[in-house]
Amino acid sequence: MRYLVVILIVLPVFTLGSCFEKNTASEVPADVAAEKNELLVDYYVIGKKPFAAEFSSTGIIYCTEFAEIQTKTGGKIMQLFAKNGSSVAKGALLAKFYPTEAELNYRQSLGSYTEAEYRFENELLGLGYSIADTAAVPKKMLQSAKIRSGLNAAENALLSAKYQLSLCSLTAPFSGVVANLTALRENSLSVSEVFCTLLNTESYTITFPLLHEEASFLQIGTSVQILPLTGGKFSGLVSEINPLINENGMILVKAQFRTSEKIILHGAKADIIIERQIPELLEVPAVAVVKRGKHKVIYSAVKGQAIWNEVTVVSEKMDFVGVQTTLKAGDTIICSNNYSLDHQVPVKLNIK
Hints:
With 352 residues, this protein is of the alpha+beta class. It has 4 domains: 37-52 and 280-349, conserved putative lor/sdh protein from methanococcus maripaludis s2 fold, CATH 2.40.420; 55-65 and 201-278, Beta Barrel (Elongation Factor Tu (Ef-tu), domain 3), CATH 2.40.30; 66-96 and 171-199, CATH 2.40.50.100; 99-167. The chain has helices at residues 2-26, 30-35, 101-126, 139-149, 151-166, and strands at residues 39-41, 43-45, 50-63, 66-70, 75-80, 87-88, 93-97, 169-171, 176-179, 188-189, 194-199, 203-211, 223-228, 234-241, 250-258, 269-285, 289-292, 295-302, 305-317, 320-324, 332-334, 345-349. Strands 3-12-15-14-13-16 form a 6-stranded antiparallel barrel. A 4-stranded antiparallel beta sheet has the order 4-11-9-6, with no helix packed on it. Strand 18 (295-302) and strand 19 form a beta hairpin. The longest helix has 26 residues, at 101-126. The radius of gyration is 44 Å and the shape is elongated.
């Protein structure tokens, strides 16, 4: 009877210990158990800025102001005052030709004008007036005195001779850089032969084609980015839009930009980038969009869960896309491990 009592006492103690161990294992907090299954993801908070679609093209840059300097009279070069690559100011002397006949004509015209002035003065004296008070001479009488003395004709001849003499010198019509100069001193140039090219390297124009559909939003003053293949980046404005569509469905657009840099871009090729703000589209990283069957979706992170949001991709640029969606600015979307996600899968944001 003593042994039976001992057994009855030991067995209940043994049973109670086993139950305690089971309860301890099953009472792990629910949030701790869920955290073990959370997927660590990178995220992106959608900004308020609307999507800026990008349109690109290529074009040729040329100086807005450039000219081929031609000789109007021809002749032998007496002096050169410029060389290729030199900067010249407006009105600066580029070259001078031997004047010869033009200078002789000018001297003769100047002498004839002096004689005409003397005869004109005598005409006025005969009418009772002096050269000092021509303002008092009646208009018709004064005009008759000029004609009889030959003053009008002599004055016109002198102006013509002076102009012809000026053609013996080549001057810069605007400030710029000299290029394509091949003439040599003591060599002759024929009439209308090109002496050099003058380039204004501060103002440039670029002409480029765009698809008619892409250019439909363009207007004078639209901002463009110009990236010469030789390097650099410039901001310009659309200055001209040709409304005619060519056989390839393209229209020609011109944009102008200025630079104070001492570089020559005339004839250089460049890439053109034009941005267009589309308010109805949200800008999101391209990696946030995944395909699920026939649908494109973005997973947003809401209270520790991945939430499925169907989207329509309307436009693309570099690493971003413009989408139509029920998402809004300020929402947090998932940008990594999204191919492993499904609706309401637990996630944890990778906050760095």
